[in-house]
Write a structure and sequence with these properties.
Helix content is about 35%, strand content about 20%. The protein has about 450 residues and is of the alpha/beta class.
């Protein structure tokens, strides 16, 4: 029976949180609100992670999605809830936390946005990425959704009237009342030790029922909630790998630019391919797909990407302007076309491992494939998840990566994980790039 419901705003975020439970043996299912039927969830599932695709929708719509899902789950006997948020605080943070609180009738909620393993920390109520204040990082230059502030409280208060309070872990004692009648309490954390210490205090205070945060604090919950565990082995196939990335984040661009060193043939989509409605149904797309399929058969390693430089982002913007495509429509149109092109490739080629970077891209692909959900098995590296697809038509392994997460050598880590049985390159890559944490 479901003990913990986790609600995420994008698919890769759902997976990098769900895997924190799965790799510790907790039976976990990741699905989306589109496919979810609470009554149909297998009774062996202990943790259910639901992607509601709410990052880019109006705040009031995000509130309604969270509120409605939590109310339904409460009615089915679910006892614990975790609102998973982006570690760089993109999306409808304030409205979604408020929706969770209201649906559960909570007077205050602990929000823990730090993810130390992903170099996201919170100090004095300010969010940092690798020691740099959030508003001074590449996330402030996101072409679709730039982060404006470093103050966690300020970001939350843009979307809710609920009071906020910044709390240092060392200053929090069980039983301490929040400042407001209803309050979102933002907890500092710089290390995993801080997260564990906070978890113990929240447990002693009876405050683990309603929580918010990213994958960092979620990793503590299997022990804190004493969740049931089983054995779940990874049985991957190392025949080939197709990488698909729709992310235009500079971090991901740099990561993918290193893929050639691991034998991947890179194919970059043109603005026309990304932004032409119905492109996937054209003869031109058919010819393009055939070339990709042939290359995959030849080399076994292909990367399909949206851009290979920030200059190509500007080219895509110019194409959109010349063809009257509104800026607010570009993200969805690009994701839909990448998803449709990938689905056509998967129809023509036998792919053993599909590697996807970016939540919008992953959701579009899974929707095209009519996937019912994913079962995360293990974490390949920080923010990188190996999972099994639940589908009547497909049987490949899937490895996902959140767009802004991962070290520069993350493609090496993924490649070694997939092909570790086939080649001795893994030892060479470890020497060159350091520990991969596989």
């Amino acid at each position: 029976m479901i003990k913990l419901l986790i609600i995420a705003d994008d698919f890769t975020g759902a997976l990098d949180t769900g895997v924190q439970f799965a790799q510790k043996g907790v039976p976990t299912l990741v699905t989306t609100a589109d496919w979810l039927r609470l009554d149909d969830v297998n009774e062996t599932i202990e943790v259910l992670v639901v992607d509601i695709e709410s990052r880019h929708i109006p705040a009031e719509d995000a509130y309604r999605l969270v509120y409605g899902l939590v109310k339904a789950a409460v009615g089915k006997g679910v006892t614990h809830f975790y609102k998973k948020t982006d570690s760089t605080l993109r999306g409808n943070i304030g409205s979604e936390l408020t929706g969770l609180m209201n649906a559960c009738g909570a007077d205050w909620l602990a929000f823990i946005p730090a993810f130390p393993k992903g170099l996201r920390t919170t100090k004095d109520g300010v969010q940092y990425v690798d020691g740099v204040e959030l508003a001074d990082t590449v996330f402030a230059r996101d072409p679709f959704e730039p982060v404006k502030h470093s103050s966690v409280s300020r970001i939350i208060r843009e979307q809710t009237d609920v009071a906020t309070e910044s709390v240092h872990v060392g200053a929090y004692e069980p039983g301490a009342r929040a400042k407001g009648q209803k309050c979102i309490r933002i907890f500092d954390a710089v290390t995993d030790g801080d997260l564990w210490s906070l978890g113990q205090k929240l447990k002693a205070d009876g405050r683990l029922r309603v929580l918010g945060g990213c994958a960092g604090f979620a990793e503590m919950l299997p022990e804190l909630l004493k969740l049931r565990r089983t054995e779940l082995a990874w049985t991957g196939n190392d025949d080939n790998a197709l990488i698909v990335t729709g992310s235009v984040n500079q971090i991901t661009i740099d990561q993918m630019n290193r893929a050639g060193g691991f034998g991947y043939t890179s194919v970059t989509l043109s603005p026309e391919q990304k932004l032409t409605c119905g492109y996937a149904e054209t003869p031109e797309c058919g010819a393009f797909v055939q070339k990709v399929v042939e290359e995959l058969k030849r080399s076994g390693r292909v990367m399909l990407r949206s851009v290979s430089s920030l200059g190509q982002v500007a080219d895509t913007d110019r194409f959109a302007g010349e063809h009257g495509i509104p800026q607010e429509s570009m993200r969805d149109l690009i994701a839909e076309n990448i998803g449709a092109i990938t689905a056509r490739i998967l129809e023509k080629a036998v792919v053993s491992n599909l590697v996807v970077s970016g939540g919008d891209t992953l959701y579009s692909i899974m929707k095209r494939l009519q996937c019912e959900g994913l079962v995360p098995v293990r974490e390949v590296a920080s923010g990188v998840v190996a999972a099994k697809i639940i589908s009547k038509a497909h049987d490949f392994s899937i490895i996902t990566k959140s767009g802004g997460l991962g070290e520069g050598a993350v493609i090496g880590a993924i490649t070694e994980f997939i092909f570790r049985k086939k080649t001795a390159e893994g030892a060479k890559n470890r020497n060159e790039y350091g520990q991969f944490n596989v």
